[in-house]
Amino acid sequence: MNKPHIVILGAGYGGIMTAVKLQKQLGQNEAEITLVHKYDYHFQTSCLHENAAGTLHQDSSKIKIKDIINRSKINFIIDEVVSIKREAKKIKLKNRKLHYDLLVIGMGPEPNTEGIPGLNEYTYSITDINSARFIREHIEYNFASYANDIKKDESKLNIVIGGGGILGVEFAGELINQIPVMCREYDVEKTLVHLYMLEENTSLLQKFDEDLAHYAITSLQSRGVEIIHQAKLKECQDNKVIYEVEGKEHVIASHTFIWTGGVQANPVFEKSGLNLKNKRIEVYSNMLSTKDDSIFVVGDCAYTANENGEEILPTAKKAIGEAAVVARNISLRLKNKELTSCQPVKQGMLATLGRDDGVATIQNHKVFGWKAVLIKRISDNHYLYKLGGWNLLLKKGNFHLL
Ligand SMILES: Cc1cc2nc3c(=O)[nH]c(=O)nc-3n(C[C@H](O)[C@H](O)[C@H](O)COP(=O)(O)OP(=O)(O)OC[C@H]3O[C@@H](n4cnc5c(N)ncnc54)[C@H](O)[C@@H]3O)c2cc1C
């Protein structure tokens, strides 16, 4: 009898953890497992803002997939998913086609450009290792270019971050620490560099407690981030950002606009005909799609809610917790047993503000400063241990706790 074919799309936190769990839970004769991912490495998305700011080299965030999967149990294909044909249970990749019996979608989100003119063309988003490296090199190039100008163009030293959510705030916190280092490297006068943050609300970190948001604003401003509240982005061009505050238009001359303002559905699953809710795939508590009972969904792709019906925020912790449930439910499904439910993760909130500052709520306690960073480092290291044991932790762990 043919073994059922399980295909996992995307090796982010959710996809790779599902694969690692399945390789432990299933025997070689029970199923054929295939993991499809764009790159030959998994990356720690939650460190990308450090890679983009240049405070952490991108190689530290990369983990070779062959080092963590058992290739006698998992076929690994480096390719890009183009479409999912659910009726035929087929996946179209750029270079081949695959048939599946059970599918796990873990492809994460796409940046949301919200139809604002010029956003697609002239902004940068922190989405993967290549985009993070590109942002760092682009900023450095502009510093180098300014230093080399005969007629100095100061707009090369203006950096604009659009969106004051977690990602924007974390990136600003890293970058403002790195600017003095770059100024020394490229012989640039520090007072000429401006780091702006445009936020359309009256505060940053909307989903955080007010005290934490206030702390974050004060921390960033004290180090020189110029936060512009109630700034409604109107348009982006290759050398300027146009925004409005209380109906009045303003322009910042800049070659560097980093957009962190939200995500949208990945076009692959958007076209697949699955039920979507708030740009994610609607799932039952057992992580099966509400439209197709041969498709499990994990991580940022999956729309899940807590007992009060409130959306659970997409985080690495959510993706990792769901991966354990998806792997267990695949094993149960193969044995024709009843599937288990995913318990909503207890959500803490955490945003780092650079190497030694941050804010967090852990079990309703507010945490400020270095303690928040320590929590983040411990949680990143714990993840590495879960993924690849002591070997991976010792190879890739971040032990510069502060
Ligand atoms: C800069 C940054 C900082 C963050 N900080 C934190 C934090 O401190 N704590 C926290 O909990 N969360 C944080 N998050 C959120 C967290 O990273 C996400 O919630 C988490 O990555 C979701 O995991 P996932 O597996 O669903 O998706 P992802 O980790 O995004 O993985 C999806 C993978 O699928 C691949 N993929 C996508 N499309 C295709 C395709 N068509 N074909 C093949 N492969 C594809 C992608 O390359 C990607 O590797 C941060 C996010 C960012 C961007």
UniProtKB/TrEMBL annotation:
Keywords, in A-Z order: FAD, Flavoprotein, Oxidoreductase
Keyword Magnesium: no
GO-annotated molecular function: NAD(P)H dehydrogenase (quinone) activity
Pfam families for the chain: Pyr_redox_2 (PF07992)
Domain named FAD/NAD(P)-binding: residues: 5-322
Gene3D superfamilies per record: 3.50.50.100
Cofactor: FAD
GO biological process, one term: aerobic electron transport chain
Stored InterPro entries: FAD/NAD-bd_sf (IPR036188), FAD/NAD-binding_dom (IPR023753), NADH-Q_oxidoreductase (IPR051169)
Family membership: Belongs to the NADH dehydrogenase family.
Protein name: NADH dehydrogenase-like protein YumB
The species this protein was found in: Oceanobacillus sojae
Gene that produces this protein: yumB_2
